[in-house]
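anyone seen this seq b4? input:
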Amino acid sequence: MSLAGTIERFVHTYLGTFERPVPFGGRQDEIEALNWWLSTNRKTRKEATETGGNAVLKADLDSNNLLITAPAGRGKTALLVRWVDQLVTNHHLVFVPISIRYQTNQASTFYNAFAARLAEIVDEELPQPRSDPAAYYREKTIEYLDCIERKEIPCLIVLDGLDEARGWHVDTTVLPSNPSENLRIVISARELAGHSGSKQWLDTLGWGKPQSGGTSFRVMPLSRSGVADVLEQLGFPLAQLSRDVDVINELYRLTEKGDPLLLTLYVNDLLTDQEGVDVLRASTHKLLLKATYAFRDCAFDFSLRLHRHTSRPRRYSGSGLRSSLCKVTEAWFFRL
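predicted toks r here
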C-alpha cells in the first residue's frame, strides 16, 4: 500500500463511518481556537494577546508554529484529525502522522511522506533516491518548504505523534523556526516522563525562547458537558442518555473525570450492548437511592438533636445549631 493510502487508513480509524462512528465530542472550544489561529494573521493574534489572549491557546499567539501536548490517551490525534476534517480553508494541507501502529515512525518513511505531499503542492515530481532514503527525502523536504515560502503558497503542515519517532528526531533545521505568513505548522506530542507541560518539546523543536517562540496548548480531560456531547454526537440510542444528568455524572466518575480513552471504551461497550445502558442507569439510580436513604437517616438524626435543643428551658444560640447542621451534612456525605 502507498504512503498516501496508509495515511488515509490512519485518518479513517479516527473518523469511522456513518454505520460505525468513532466517539468524539466536547472539543468545540479547542477546534474554534485552532480555526481562529489558522484564519488570522500575526498582527491580529498579537493584538489578542495584549487584550487577554485566548482561553485555549497559550503564549506567543502571533507565532505561526503551534504545539499540542497531553499525556497518553488524552485525545490529541482525534482532535487533530477532526479539526483538519472540518476545515474550510485555502491552505494546502500536509498531514503526516508518526505512528508505530501504521509503521510511519521510521525516518525514511516520515520524510518520504512529507516530501511527496510537498512535491504535489509545488507541482513537481519527486525523484527516487539513489542512496540513504532518509537523508535524501529530508533534503527534498527542506527544498520544497523553501519553495513554498518563496512562492507564498498557503500551506498548513500537521505532524502528529512526534513522540512515536524511534531512533531519530525531527531535524530542527527542516522546520522553519519563524515561518512566513503563508505557512502554518502544527505538531502534537505526548508528554514524556519528566516533562512539565510543553516547554521541553518547544526546546526540542527549536521553538523555545529566546531563539524563537511557539503557540501551545495542553489537551485537557473532558468536562461533564463534553461527556454529554460525545453521547449526543453518536445519535440514537445513546443521544437520549446525554440529557440524563445522573447518567452523565456516573460516566464522568467512571472515566476518572472525563478521560477520553476510558470514555471511548465505555461508549463502545454501550453501543454494542444494550444491557450496558440498563446497567449504567441502574447504577445511577442505585446511587441516588443510596443518597436518599442516607439523607433521610441524617435528617432524622438532625430532627432529634433539634428537638433536644428546643425542648430545653435554657436559651440556645444559633451557632450551636449551625454546628449541628454541619455535622449532619458531613455525616450524610460519609454515608454515600
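The chain has two domains: 3-218, 243-335. Residues 243-335 form one domain. kinda curious what u guys think
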